[in-house]
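Our collaborator T.R. sent over the components below with a one-line note: 'Predict the complex.' Nothing else. No constraints on interfaces, no templates requested, no preferences about which chain binds where. So this is a plain run: every listed entity goes in together, and whatever single assembly comes back becomes the starting point for the next discussion.
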Amino acid sequence: MQDLLSLILGLCLPSLLILFVHLYSRSSRRIRTPPGPKGAFFTGVKDQLTHSPWKVYAQWAEHYQSPVISFWIYNRRTVVLNDHKSVRELLDKRAILYSDRPKSWMYHELCGRGDSVFNISSLDPRHGTYRRLIRHGLSGRALEEYHELLDNEANIFIELMTQKPGEFQHHLRRTIAAIIMKIAYGYSVTENNDPFIEIAEESAKISGWALAPGRWLVDYYPIVRFIPSWFPFAQFRRQGEKWRKQLESLSDVPHNWVKKQMAQSNSVDSFTTRLLQPNAHAEPENIVKWAAGGLYAGASDTTVSALTSFILLMALFPDVQEEAQHEITDFCGSGRVPSITDLHRLDYLVALYKEVLRYAPVSNMALPHKVVQDDVYQSYRIPKDSTVIANTWAILHDPALYPDPHEFKPSRFNNTPVISKHQPQQGNLKKSLCSETSGYTLHSENSDIELNPDPRTYCFGYGRRTCPGMRLAEISVLLIMSRVLSKFKISLPVGEGSAPQVEFTSGITSHIKPFNIIIERRQ
Ligand code: HEM
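Returned assembly:
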């Protein structure tokens, strides 16, 4: 009898186990994905994201009463995180799962840029190597060696501004390029039309076209990449091949220049020369080339965007400008400008820097991440391979975090952190639908919230993709801000009627659209 029982159990138990696993996996698959719009049959929501997608996402989050939303763009599942809580929980705490990048077949494969710092998979060991090299090359200690360079370039910038203040954006581009070219390659930028800057800008332009979201069908239906390039509808393949050759030769130019200088014993110490030195720590050449290439690509447009916003906002907010100027004069006395080591002792200047980053985020949605396995967040399933976007703009304009989010108020960062008990009410969610004046608020449950958290913890991205150039960006921006405030008065032209509306460009890096301002030398 006992034998029969153990036989039955022996046969049934494995079957029961299989049945249980099957039912469990089916039920776990039944957990809903986050809510969101259905979109069109073939293209999904692609056509609804023409301008300022971060605002559209925030509106959808309100509409669906959920900070985490999802939808399809063509056949790609996209999940958008619209509040600080989901971003912290998923992108930072579960960084190991959420730090991959979605594949752009056009840019990564056809144009051959998949190995760049920005695009490489987080699962590829080279990603860790790139980041280690950049972190080390831009560490606090390494940056101290660049203080003289930064100081000289800031002085040249002030000189150029004095001569042609109307061309401030051009001067900013030149200055940031000069700093990063010297750090990456030991290369000194010439005054105008520098060939290396033109090459780098050309690469950036091509990259922008190749990465344009929704433009290339191959990004969503990779099977079409097998269409031969002579085929009438394969224009994308011919374009990809052309760009691949261009991008390859463009990225080789500065690298080969350094090698030639080293061979002739003419090289200036730089990120690249240090890593190519034939010693025990030398890195494979290809790794060094990609890592150095990431420095220019990461630093140029972003830093210029932050500084352009600063200059334009000073024209709109003269009281803020005066307060920052008083602080500098009180600290330095008249005639002296702040040195790099003074910068972090100027509390209002640092608060102004944070408010510029919050009010006009350089990167409204960071760069897209990808989740590498199925995951569950609160009651939602986040399917493997979903593209995951952090809506940094929505977080930095959330009135529950930053009261009066559409006001430009550096003083919000002068106080010690305040904790508030945030109690959302159903009615508020609808009312606050991210209009420019009301702001956006969406929290799924009552929670303690630190008011006015440091925006740098959002502006520079998340998890294992957090910007490795944050420290260099901060010193460069604070230094140029302090010099501009010391030397110039920025204002709106008189008699032009009402103040201009602040509008932003759409794109990976967002810029305030320029308007007329007057820049005069201070006495
Ligand atoms: C105000 C200036 C800057 C801002 C706002 C900024 C912001 C960002 C953001 C949002 C990301 C994407 C993070 C993510 O995907 O979660 C990023 C990535 C990156 N940034 Fe910056 N950045 C700035 C300056 C710089 C500078 C000066 C450098 C280098 C010298 C740099 C190098 C990079 C690199 C290499 C990456 C790619 C990291 C990766 O994919 O692993 N950035 N940055």
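Summary for T.R.: Residues 176 and 273 are 20 Å apart (CA to CA).
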